[in-house]
Amino acid sequence: MIWCVEDDASIRDIEVYALQSTGFEARGYEDGNTFWQELQSEKPELVVLDIMLPGMDGIQILKKMRENKEFQAIPVIMATAKGEEYDKIHGLDLGADYYLAKPFGVMELVSCVKAVLRRCQPKRIDHLLKTGNLIVNLDEHTVTANGERILLTFKEFEILRLFLSHPGMVYTRDQLFNDIWGMDYCGETRTVDMHIRTLRQKLGIYGKMIETVRGVGYRLEAIE
Predict the structure, then answer these.
(1) Please, what are the domains in the chain?
(2) Exposure string over 3-40, b if 16+ CB within 10 A, otherwise e
(3) What is the value of pTM for the model shown?
(4) Rounded CA gap, 224 and 222, in Å?
(5) How many CB atoms are located within 10 Å of the residue 141 CB?
């Protein structure tokens, strides 16, 4: 939802219409006080904020938003009168993400909104561990090799995750046992050997990457 705060009804209607016609949800507010009241119960994705507003003006609103942890991450595009260099600089200093000088075209507004949203979106982190065509997806808890799904038990998955997180590192049986099963588990370290054996079998050609280090334990040698 994009909120447009503009006291000129004709400009406000054009802004809202332009955004809605390009796929955005948009809503207009004619003054800063109404906008601020609505902000207490709902948060927009982005605000297009005019500086010259009745009551609380755009600079005051921006300052309050950036001082409030609840609202400080909301992107704000300031709309300034053409030639008002002080307002532009002051707005950017207070934390505006962009500014538009009036008069601006509707497509300029839409392009600006898209650009700011793109820039302000949190970067997606792919929780993937890879070696060759062996891929472990930590979010989906899946393993694929050459595009084929491999079904692993929880412990097998955790062993593979540990190895791929630290390729080349040697783990003793005791380390693997404690990391994967935990200190409170009532078992023995031969359990590790059994799980390594079945994991190698399930991984097929990639199982060869899990090497036995004689007298020490196991490690995984990653491939490019």
Answers:
(1) 2-120 (3.40.50.2300), 128-220 (1.10.10.10)
(2) bbbbbeeebbebbbebbeeeebebbbbbbbeebbeebe
(3) 0.55
(4) 7
(5) 11
Residue by residue, pLDDT tens for the chain (224 residues) are 999 999 999 999 999 999 999 999 999 999 999 999 999 999 999 999 998 898 888 889 999 998 888 898 899 998 887 555 555 565 566 678 888 888 888 899 999 999 888 887 765 556 899 999 999 999 889 999 999 999 999 899 999 999 999 999 999 988 888 888 775 545 555 788 999 999 999 999 999 999 999 988 999 988 76
Tokens at residue 166, please? Answer: 């630290």
3-class secondary structure, 136:
strand
- Output the six-digit token pair for 29: 């507010």
Token digits of residue 168: 């080349």
Residue whose tokens read 């359990």: 191
Strand partners, 171: 218
